[in-house]
Design a protein that fits this description.
With about 270 residues, this protein is α+β, with helices and mostly antiparallel strands. About 25% of the residues lie in helices and about 20% in strands. The protein is built from four helices and nine strands. The two termini are about 15 Å apart. The structure holds benzoic acid and fe (iii) ion. Benzoic acid binds next to helix 3.
Amino acid sequence: MTARVGEGSTGPKTAEADKARLEAIWRATINKLKEVVREYEITQDELHVAGDFLDRLGKAGMCRSLIDVALAMTSVEALDVAKGGTRSNLEGPYYGTHPVRPNGRLFEREPSPSASLLTLSGTVYEAETGVPAAHARLDFWQADENGHYDRAGNHLRGVVFADDAGHYEITTIIPSDYAEHDHDPIGELFRAMGRTNTRAAHIHLKVSTGSTLRLTTQLFLPTSSFLERDYVEGAVSSDLTLFLIEQEQADAGEPRYAATFDVFLGSEAT
Ligand code: BEZ
Ligand code: FE
């Protein structure tokens, strides 16, 4: 396969292949869009409304988000074929470089009293052999109890390593449904279509062994009201939805909820 756009070129041959691939993708995209213009008899005025919308979307810094909402799961599914193991899911627009959390706590500051603390633990296995993946690297990031990501810092973001037996554990909070688009062009578009613009609450996870990224996925929270109508179609599935156990006796500051999620690493890197 030729290098993918954005993966960088290593020589003149690859640069030529990149150019050819980019041109083929551009032509295919425009041809599909021309079909839409013909089918819906879209006027030039309507095309300009679309252009103005894209200008607003760019100014709001939301182009990545809309592309993710519309297309990322299709890319995940196309590349996940025959990989096996835990189902992949979209990376989303808010991945960063996260600090290692030696004690497993993903906090930069004390969680707010309205947040529900959660202990998430499990074992990472090689799907094919069932052998635990000792020292696997797990990288987590998520929204807070109000559905907001920390985009300036690393609150509710962090890396932990599995132990010799492949076991990992983090302490975090239960994130809320993510509804940051109410006042941006994505919200405007979804409202205009009579649809909601909310993501079901989730925790992002990347798992690597050695220097190889093996899995990018999301774990969904059963507390979400949007599991059936996440605006990223096809993202939510029951195999990626956590089962929460409530600890009746939790002291203040102690996790009230616990969940287990075992990870099975498929045959190919993502
Ligand atoms: C997310 O996974 O957090 C996400 C995906 C698409 C748009 C916005 C957020
Ligand atoms: Fe997310």
